[in-house]
């Protein structure tokens, strides 16, 4: 009975966007009823093996085909610019439907975490007067973003009933704001190869070259290059990123072997063993974070402090959402004693703080599977700075929202600096029982378990921090296969 109601014409009309809004220079149409939940749907048709393509077909059979966009054919920034320009023009010409459509518009994005991050970056950068909230369909390997907001982590059904059920969830979903984070990396490029990306360094798509630097910056000297980007879920460094890098490298070489979510996760676990992540103290005794870099944190504007990293820690995660490595929560919820004694708070997604967690090895990571399990809580911070000098290793591995890379480290007196800073917020759609919690919802405060104002800009922030540049930062180059984002 419920499926018949969802498949009714009245239900489907709630989500449809009229043609004239989607096409430039169209004539205004008279609408018998205004859509209550108009949606723009972006689908990475290469994600999830065949599932992305199947999902595209189903959505287009239910909704106006023009409101369902294949990201392999058109970039989201061009679509959003066109739609919002049309809305603005129709509002100025007195169309009574346009203001309501703009106010109620929502976005659905289907793909992996990389695809979802791309959409979030574009919406953030376009600086829309009424940016639409975003719901994420899990269609990748990790699916941390969808899981954090209650949309699950398993690949969805692609049949008509499954899509209608998801649309119903979107209609009932609540809006949540989440913090966005800016990442800046400065380094001297290798002596061979080009700059963008630095060869042999294959940077993730979310990091791009940026050459304007602050006049007061100590690294503003000849020979250094600056890269910047953004993330919403996490930045990690060390052995966990090494395993991720091995997985992505293998998938790039043999994409035909990675079309099943269960197979992908099994392969990931096997690589964790082969890379020595379960016995890192034996296989990689010099790979601890304390030997690789100095870490500084800022909890209050202008107050940098050294962060003590235990010598046993070989992986460090800077976490924004309570979902990492396929849905695990490394921070957990500190009890009242730890909150008081160590100045720790629950992991809110809109408090302007990143949770910094350390792991010794993969065995240590398995504690996350236990009730109330968590990693080594190191600190919470508004800004984080990693300073790499000549040390015990030639390289380390880093990862941003699922995109890993192999990072060369200084071999002489050079310096590599990675700095993370709070940027702003974006709007997400979430189910009412999702695990992400907000500081503005008292009822969502996590229960007691065992175990600065984010809108203010620091005076020390230079020109390179002023603009996120996410539409360019998250633009996928033409020669990059969309399957690599899944």
TrEMBL record:
PROSITE patterns: DAGK
GO biological process, one term: phospholipase C-activating G protein-coupled receptor signaling pathway
Transmembrane annotation, as ranges: none
Gene Ontology cellular-component annotations: membrane
Pfam families: DAGK_acc (PF00609), DAGK_cat (PF00781)
GO MF annotations, alphabetized: ATP binding; ATP-dependent diacylglycerol kinase activity
Keywords from the named record: ATP-binding, Kinase, Nucleotide-binding, Plant defense, Stress response, Transferase
Reaction(s) catalysed by this chain's protein: a 1,2-diacyl-sn-glycerol + ATP = a 1,2-diacyl-sn-glycero-3-phosphate + ADP + H(+)
Extent of Acidic residues compositional bias: 450-462
Coiled coil (UniProt feature): none
Region described as Disordered: 434-466
InterPro entries noted in UniProt: ATP-NAD_kinase_N, DGK, Diacylglycerol_kin_accessory, Diacylglycerol_kinase_cat_dom, Diacylglycerol_kinase_pln, NAD/diacylglycerol_kinase_sf
Domain of life according to the entry: Eukaryota
Residues covered by the DAGKc domain: 34-187
EC number(s) on file: 2.7.1.107
Statement: the UniProt record of this protein carries the keyword Transferase: yes
Family membership: Belongs to the eukaryotic diacylglycerol kinase family.
Subunit structure: Monomer.
Role this protein plays: Phosphorylates the second messenger diacylglycerol (DAG) to generate phosphatidic acid (PA), another important signaling molecule. PA is required for plant development and responses to abiotic stress and pathogen attack. May be involved in the accumulation of PA during cold stress.
Protein name: Diacylglycerol kinase
Protein species of origin: Handroanthus impetiginosus
């Amino acid at each position: 009975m419920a499926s018949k109601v969802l498949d009714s014409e009245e239900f489907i009309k709630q989500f449809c966007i009229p043609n004239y809004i989607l096409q430039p220079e169209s004539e205004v149409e008279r609408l018998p009823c205004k859509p209550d939940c108009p949606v723009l749907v972006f689908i990475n048709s290469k994600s999830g093996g065949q599932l992305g393509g199947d999902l595209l077909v189903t959505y287009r059979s239910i909704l106006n085909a023009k409101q369902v966009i294949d990201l392999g054919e058109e970039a989201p920034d061009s679509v959003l610019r066109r739609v919002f320009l049309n809305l603005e023009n129709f509002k100025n010409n007195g169309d009574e439907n346009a203001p309501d459509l703009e106010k109620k518009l929502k976005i659905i994005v289907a793909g992996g975490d990389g695809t979802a991050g791309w959409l979030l970056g574009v919406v953030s950068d376009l600086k829309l007067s009424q940016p639409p909230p975003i719901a994420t369909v899990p269609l990748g390997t990790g699916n941390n973003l969808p899981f954090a907001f209650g949309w699950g982590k398993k690949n969805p059904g692609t049949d008509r009933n499954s899509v209608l059920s998801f649309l119903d969830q979107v209609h009932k979903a609540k809006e949540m704001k989440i913090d966005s984070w800016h990442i800046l990396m400065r380094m001297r490029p290798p002596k061979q190869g080009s700059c963008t990306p630095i060869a042999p360094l294959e940077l993730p798509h979310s990091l791009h070259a940026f050459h304007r630097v602050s006049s007061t910056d100590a690294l503003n000297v000849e020979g250094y290059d600056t890269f910047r980007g953004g993330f919403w879920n996490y930045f990690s460094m060390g052995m966990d990123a090494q395993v991720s890098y091995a997985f992505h490298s293998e998938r790039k070489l043999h994409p035909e072997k990675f079309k099943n979510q269960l197979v992908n996760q099994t392969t990931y676990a096997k690589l964790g063993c082969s890379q020595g992540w379960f016995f890192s103290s034996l296989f990689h005794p010099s790979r601890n974070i304390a030997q690789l870099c100095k870490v500084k944190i800022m909890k209050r504007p202008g107050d940098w402090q050294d962060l003590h990293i235990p010598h046993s820690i070989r992986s460090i995660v800077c976490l924004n959402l309570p979902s990492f490595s396929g849905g695990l929560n490394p921070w957990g919820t500190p009890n009242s004693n730890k909150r008081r004694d160590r100045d720790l708070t629950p992991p809110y997604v809109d408090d302007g703080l990143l949770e910094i967690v350390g792991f010794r090895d993969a065995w240590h990571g398995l504690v996350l599977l236990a009730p109330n399990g968590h990693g080594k809580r190191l600190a919470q911070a508004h800004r984080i700075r990693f300073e790499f000098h000549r040390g015990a290793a030639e390289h380390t591995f880093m990862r941003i929202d699922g995109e890993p890379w192999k990072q060369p480290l200084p071999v002489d007196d050079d310096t590599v600096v990675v700095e993370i800073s709070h940027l702003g917020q974006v709007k997400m759609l979430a189910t009412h029982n999702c695990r992400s919690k907000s500081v503005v919802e008292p009822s969502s405060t996590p229960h007691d378990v065992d175990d600065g104002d984010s809108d203010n800009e620091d005076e020390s922030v230079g020109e390179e921090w002023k603009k996120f540049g996410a539409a360019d930062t998250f633009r996928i180059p033409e020669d990059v296969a969309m399957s690599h984002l899944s």
